[in-house]
Amino acid sequence: MPDPILVTLDGAVLDPNVPLLYADDLAAVRGDGVFETLLVRDGTARCVDRHLDRLDRSAKALDLPAPDLDRWRSAIETGQRVWAQRWGGDREGMMRVVYSRGRESAPVDAVARARSSETGISRESNEATAYLTVAPVPQRAFDVRAGGVSVLTAQRGYSIDLASAAPWQLYGAKTLSYATNMAALRWAAEQGADDVIYLSAEGAVLESPRSTVITVRGDTLATPPPESGILAGTTQQAVFALAEKEGWRTSTERLRTPDLIAADAVWLVSSVTLAARVTALNGYRMPTPERPGEFADLVDRAILAG
């Protein structure tokens, strides 16, 4: 695989083979940071505003310094420009934006120290780490776009009320702490499946480790509510916005496993994979919809419009 493109927040394009992080960066030692992943298609990063809005919300949830969104837009433009120069816009890229609290050993300035005394929150560092990379979209994404995914449901182990009762759990924030999600995917692979759909303690459908769940029932698209402690999907939002303009009905509602089985189709939607149809759920072979390309085409057009 070719080397990724590396761009720091100040717009510098660096050698990706030269180390960037310090050994005590809190992204590495604690996963104390947030990230976003954008699709670069036709040389342009897609749904930038939606991703930056979510980056800002995630940063607030972690009490990170407010990200400078204008500087992030500029860095994204640099990243997509260098990517287009390298590949001529013909190859899809995966752009990962990373924003962490910085070094554990960095000194705390007077402003941060004063804020800590006011809030009771100890801030280890006032020098955040901020950069982005662009690399080719993994082959897996193309494979599941074309062939779909087999999925197992898995207990996440908490109630849908936990997000509001325990905000420190950071449900709904896109944090760097993805070890549990990766473990769930490895567990699914050991069982012969491709992916997981999490369920709450009450049996409510939540999300996939890397995707939002959307069901299709006739002319209605439905997805679980973010209030249940899931990540608000940028691609799902773009899809619903375009779908409503084109006459689809959209719904945010509580879903359960029987609702998935009864749907015309179930899709896992994300920024890079885009749309992967669930072909099997807990070993049950899902029926093929009459027009399987219709929803995938909607997602393609939505991310271009978004």
From TrEMBL:
- Which stretch is the leader sequence? none
Protein name, entry field: 4-amino-4-deoxychorismate lyase
Q: Provide a GO CC annotation, any one.
A: cytosol
- Keyword Ribonucleoprotein in the entry? The reply is no
Q: Family assignment?
A: Belongs to the class-IV pyridoxal-phosphate-dependent aminotransferase family.
Which keywords are on file for this protein? Lyase
Q: Check the record and name the NCBIfam families matching this protein.
A: PRK07849.1-1, PRK07849.1-2
An example of a GO molecular function for this protein is: lyase activity
Starting at the broadest rank, the lineage of the source organism is:
Bacteria, Bacillati, Actinomycetota, Actinomycetes, Mycobacteriales
Question: GO annotations under biological process?
Answer: carboxylic acid biosynthetic process
The organism sits in which domain of life?
Answer: Bacteria
